[in-house]
Amino acid sequence: MKKPSLQQNIFRNFAVFLVVFLFIASLLSFYNQSPFHQSEEVDIATFVTQIKKGEVEQVTVEGEKLNITLGDGKKEFTRKETEESLTTLLKNFGVSTKQLEEVKIVVKDSTTSFFILSSILPFIIPFLLIGGLIWYMMRQVQGANNRALMFGQSRARELNPEKKRVNFKDVAGLKEAKTELEEIVEFLKNPKKFNALGARIPKGVLLVGVPGTGKTLLARAVAGEADVPFYHISGSEFVEMFVGVGASRVRDLFRKAKKTAPCIVFIDEIDAVGRQRGAGLGGSHDEREQTLNQILVEMDGFDNETNVIIIAATNRPDVLDPALLRPGRFDRRVVITLPDIKEREAILIVHAQGKPFASDVDLHVLAQRTPGFSGADLSNVLNEAAIFAARKNKKKIIMQDALESIEKVMLGPERRSHVMNEKEKKITAYHEAGHALVAHVLPDADPVRKVSIVSRGAAGGYTLKLPGEDKHFHSKAEFIADLAVMLAGHAAEKFIFNDVTTGASDDLRKATKLARKIVMEYGMSEAMSFRTYGEKEELIFLGREIGEQRDYSEETARMIDNEVSQFLNNSYSKAREIILKYKEKLENIAQTLLEKETLEQEAFEALMKA
Ligand code: ADP
Ligand code: MG
Ligand code: ZN
């Protein structure tokens, strides 16, 4: 929601006051005419005549006002001079004592209380209202001033230690990172031990790793273990529209931290402010530089006695300013990698807590099926599995739910509603059958886990093949087998229908990319010398390329292109060969797919043995 501006605010308050004021005013004027005053005013002569006739039952004297109740219940009123008493008045008008005795006379002390109130109130209320309005507006303006002053304060939130405390045991795997951070905890708990030996305690720890690997979680766990205040701020929160805010927030944050030392300051996503200075693209880097400078100044500022430890997290260590990384600042780097199979199982165990699983669920198998998944992905898998189970109104989560959610996280949700016509379905079946067949036949390719012609995400169908264990190295033979499997869909379509569809284009793109890597990066081409081509600005452990700088001649470029084509052609021939040789099996798989839509590993292998 958009917050109303100050002017809007005042204006709205003013309008509210105006309405309230008008309401009260109209109420008062209404009240002035009605219910008490429904009686009719008469003159004194009439009143006297009525008394003389004996029609009057009661007279209530209220100061100068006489409220008269007649025998028939009618009410009226009249006025006399204030000083003159009623009896004197009546006597003067010649009312006899006897006539007077028949009338009940009540004297009310009206000059005080109500009378005063009712005459003064109409004057006072507007003053009160206007006074109130002025006071309220002043307060508003002051509030705005205060808020403007708050602007330069850090937005750091102190983590409530009672609420949802995280400990190291909640962080699965990440052994090296934990060991490193345990030292920090030890220092926060017991600084004397280190100081006595003259050890300089690291001031800053930089957690580096791809998103979702548990950097934020780990930092919170450090706070939980050390049992000290924990200030959490995100790098982007330093940077605001106004110049100088970032630096002032840094100052404020560190002032607070020093006051509550020992404590931990956690700057998440520090690359938002910590980028290399002077390298800013776009114009707004001045402010960021000031902020960064302030961080550097503050980190240098505290001495060894001050137990403030700064933990920062980033997934772009390559863009950080070198000044941040020099000893005395973030001199410790803890690299957090994607979890291996054992760590994945451990993470799954942590997140399986509180979820009712059927006995057929094997977390080890789930870990096997999820290479390349981050901790966040894994926690997402189990959550999706629980949602699947709940949607089917089951009491427990079964293995099938979990396997399905892995595919969902990997490839996007199934699109069963996506209707393919018979022709498209047939083409998809043969295409996927081609991938599966070649993957099965080639010993260097990973085993097939599942083949399906149900659409998922952007893919029309899919063939899942996963290694039995995590691999850190890949051989040339494996790559060549992979290329053949990738191209097999295209080859199968061409073989069966003597035509190809656009469905194979994604396969081709992936195959081309892999072939280029084989030639240019891995030095696996015989024809090219043993070197890499292209100076890549690549984030090694992120596996993402930002740009490439050509460091070879035109002629070499042509040679590279030739080699890449060579690899692709050879692989395509290999795939075609296999498809020709086992065309009955291809037929078998495709027909089964058309019938059942999905084949799991066991069913697929049985089919291949037949
Ligand atoms: P990052 O900050 O590295 O992007 P987070 O720390 O925010 O990632 O992790 C996101 C979520 O993933 C965590 O809240 C947690 O549920 C899960 N997670 C990630 N790594 C682990 C791990 N090692 N153990 C347990 N849960 C993890
Ligand atoms: Mg994070
Ligand atoms: Zn394909």
Automatic annotation (TrEMBL):
EC numbers on record: 3.4.24.-
Residue ranges occupied by any AAA+ ATPase domain in the UniProt entry: 201-340
Single Gene Ontology BP annotation: cell division
Record localization: Cell membrane; Membrane
GO molecular function terms listed in the Swiss-Prot or TrEMBL record: ATP binding; ATP hydrolysis activity; ATP-dependent peptidase activity; metalloendopeptidase activity; zinc ion binding
Topological category with respect to the lipid bilayer: Multi-pass membrane protein
Catalytic-site annotation from UniProt: E432
Any matching Pfam family: Peptidase_M41
GO cellular component, one term: plasma membrane
Cofactor (UniProt): Zn(2+)
Function: Acts as a processive, ATP-dependent zinc metallopeptidase for both cytoplasmic and membrane proteins. Plays a role in the quality control of integral membrane proteins.
Similarity comment: In the C-terminal section; belongs to the peptidase M41 family. Belongs to the AAA ATPase family.
Name used for this protein in its record: ATP-dependent zinc metalloprotease FtsH
Organism taxonomic ancestry: Bacteria, Candidatus Kerfeldiibacteriota
Gene name in the database record: ftsH
